[in-house]
Design a protein that fits this description.
605 residues; PAS_fold_3; five-stranded antiparallel beta sheet; Sig_transdc_His_kin-like_C; alpha+beta; 44% helix; Beta-Lactamase; transferase
């Protein structure tokens, strides 16, 4: 019977503890051929700790049990040692019983490791759920709350001793409570999860919108017994969404109130909204207008070009603008300005466009253009007439001067005032000839205002002008200083610059002071805004800048009538500079001198 036991059995006889009996299972532990040998000399796989206590067990006569004792590298045994007696009742030896528990110990070790891993995962999960900015919870099939993360207590202000199942529904907003309880119960009955929003009362009494999501813990084929979920505060998102919806409603109301065609389009350029006025104006429904409605409303010969421009704007993102004829509900085509701009919103780009009726403005513009063309032709004809008249009248004037000279040479007058009369006639003829020359110059200068623009070297241009005025400069003993280092170049018409500077310098020479030689300074500089300017300063007679009776730049207006002149030069200066967008400023003191500052404006192109 001992040999057939599913456990190792051995007897150790005498104080020396020699092997007296070893069954087959025990030989797996202690080895073969051990009978009569001391266990201390041939322990086999028995552990040293057991060998140390065997003599003491024999001496004490007590029972000893060792659980899951490691015997060798791969086996564990439950070892039981107890003394046995002879016929006289004396301890004759020890009975050693070994049960192999390696598999049970391995399973127990694995179970322990799994338990540790489970506890580690559980601790990690709790850390994650309790540090996340949301409330996690678990409920059973009856709706009882079995777990809630600490965030719930912080959010609601409830004590940890509160009955969660009872208090939770009371914290839900009264308008949401029935819906929430019904949907949660329906989800539990169906074995499914839920996803809904409701308002939950915060610790300060304020209700905040929360998003509740929950899923069942499934172990097929059994029905779910637990639901795990999370509460996320979505109050700001909800308010923003409501504000966005209100804003969209207000914008649509505003767009529908505007007596103008308003539409929006997707990033691909397909129209997805028309305001109410568009339907009234076109007489078409939204379905009839379609995603490219405004293009189909244009005149047939304009649709292809408009569609190409619209496709290019959609592809490039550039603003769309053009004037087209659009059909009204009565079939009449009216001129419209169509504009569209792209808005890059968070949910992608969108197009916003308008179609503005400009029929009246277009017709008015045509009338104004016609009138402008007529005025331009009349102005041109008038300039031509003045130029031709001034040119043609110079010949009779020259003839009169010749006849007058012959008359002075060959005729003798007995009148005592003949010399005065002759001087007056001669002065009148010179004045007439000068006036005709200035009128021709005025017309010629106005035509030169369309001359091409180029980059001018001011030093060279001013040198050419002063070279032309050299006889007058030398005759009057004038000194001219040129200072162009601050702004050495100017982008302007060469003929216009020559005319302006020539008139200003010749006036400075003409109206010089009789008791001192002329001193003229030409200075080019840049203003604080970066515009170029030219200053012409003299020490001549000066003038009344605020003289209402004789405005400085008025044609034929003169202040110093004792000096020969026609009052055309300053008019030409002001006309040339203002026609290019610039202006001229004057500062003057009688008897001390005058300063003209010309602020050029660089023309386009």
């Amino acid at each position: 019977m001992l040999r057939q036991l599913p456990a190792g059995v051995a007897t150790l006889a005498g104080p020396d503890l020699r092997y007296a009996f070893v069954n087959d299972r025990m030989r797996e532990l202690v080895g073969e051929g051990q009978l009569g040998q001391r266990v201390a000399d041939h322990p086999g796989a028995l552990p040293t700790v057991l060998l140390d206590v065997l003599p003491r067990i024999f001496s004490a006569g007590e029972h000893y049990l060792a659980k899951a004792l490691a015997c060798g590298p791969h086996h564990c045994y439950d070892l039981s040692v107890q003394p046995y007696h002879d016929e006289q009742g004396q301890i004759a030896g020890l009975l050693l019983l070994a049960v192999d528990v390696s598999e049970q110990e391995s399973s127990r070790q694995r179970a322990h490791e799994l338990l540790l891993a489970t506890r580690h995962l559980d601790a990690r999960l709790r850390v994650l759920t309790e540090t996340a900015p949301l409330i996690t919870y678990t409920t059973d099939a009856a709706g009882k709350v079995t777990y809630v993360s600490p965030q719930w207590y912080r959010f609601t202000g409830q004590p940890p001793t509160a009955d969660l199942t009872a208090i939770w529904p009371l914290l839900i907003h009264p308008d949401d409570r029935l819906r929430v309880l019904y949907e949660a119960e329906a989800g539990r009955r169906a074995g499914a999860g839920w996803n809904f929003e409701y308002r939950l009362r915060r610790y300060d009494g304020m209700y905040r919108w929360m998003l509740s999501r929950s899923l069942p813990e499934v172990h097929p084929p059994d029905a779910p017994v637990s639901w795990h979920g999370a509460l996320t505060e979505v109050h700001q998102e909800r308010e923003l969404s409501e504000a966005r919806r209100r804003g969209e409603a207000e914008l649509r109301f505003l767009a529908d109130s505007i007596p103008e065609l308003v539409w929006t389009a997707s990033a691909e350029g397909l129209v997805d909204y028309y305001n109410h006025y568009t339907h009234e104006y076109t007489g078409l429904t939204e379905a009839e207008l379609g995603p490219t409605g405004w293009v189909g409303l244009l005149q047939a010969d304009e649709q292809a070009a408009a569609a190409r421009r619209w496709v290019q704007s959609v592809a490039s993102g550039e603003e769309f603008e053009g004037e087209y004829r659009m059909r009204r509900h009565d079939g009449v085509y009216r001129w419209h300005t169509i504009r569209a701009r792209q808005l890059n919103a968070e949910n992608g780009p969108r197009w916003f466009g308008t179609c503005s009726d400009i029929e009246e403005q277009y017709r008015l513009r045509q009338v104004l253009q016609t009138q402008y063309d007529e005025l331009s032709r009349a102005h041109h004809n008038l300039d031509t007439f003045v130029y031709a008249a001034s040119h043609d009248l110079r010949q009779p004037t020259n003839n009169l001067r010749g006849l007058f000279e012959e008359l002075r040479r060959s005729v003798t007058f007995t009148d005592s005032e003949q010399e005065l009369m002759l001087k007056m006639v001669d002065s009148a003829l010179v004045q007439l000839d000068t006036t005709l020359i200035d009128l021709a110059t005025t017309v010629r200068t106005q035509r030169q205002q369309q001359d091409p623009v180029e980059v001018l070297d001011l030093a060279l241009v001013l040198e050419e002008i002063l070279l032309g005025l050299r006889p007058e400069i030398m005759q009057r003993g004038a000194r001219v200083d040129v200072q162009v280092s601050e702004a050495p170049s100017l982008r302007y018409s060469r003929a216009n610059v020559r005319s302006v500077v020539h008139n200003l310098v010749s006036n400075a020479l003409k109206f010089s002071h009789p008791i001192r030689p002329p001193h003229i300074v030409l200075r080019s500089f840049a203003t604080a805004e970066g515009h170029l300017a030219l200053e012409v300063r003299d020490n001549g007679l000066g003038m009344h800048v605020e003289n209402a009776a004789h405005p400085i730049f008025q044609l034929f207006s003169r202040q110093h009538t004792h000096v020969d002149g026609t009052g055309v030069g300053l008019y030409l200066v002001q006309r040339i500079v203002s026609s290019q967008g610039g202006h001229v400023e004057v500062a003057s003191t009688l008897g001390e001198g005058t300063t003209f500052t010309v602020y050029w404006t660089v023309p386009n192109g």
